[in-house]
Amino acid sequence: MPRGTHVEGKNIGHIVAYTLSTCVWCKKMKRLLNELGIEYDYIDVDLLEGDEKEQARKEVLRWNHAGSFPTIVIDNKKSINGYEPEKVKELLDS
Q1: What is the per-residue DSSP string for 3-22?
Q2: pTM of this prediction?
């Protein structure tokens, strides 16, 4: 997995957010995760280069066939594609 940035918070599973540094919806998703106090890692795919960028793009497509951002992967089992605040809040209840 490409290197990302870790954000401390409540551990509700291994959460990786694939984002773009310039994406408004990605910024909203990060803000929501921060406000909810959820621990996660994020990878700004547009800031990667070479093999890391290619690997991140493949991972996004694995979980989100549209290849859109943000793509949130939870425990390498399921994903939330796009800005879906209700689905993120449901994670806290599960």
Answers
A1: --EEE-SB-SS-EEEEE-TT
A2: 0.93
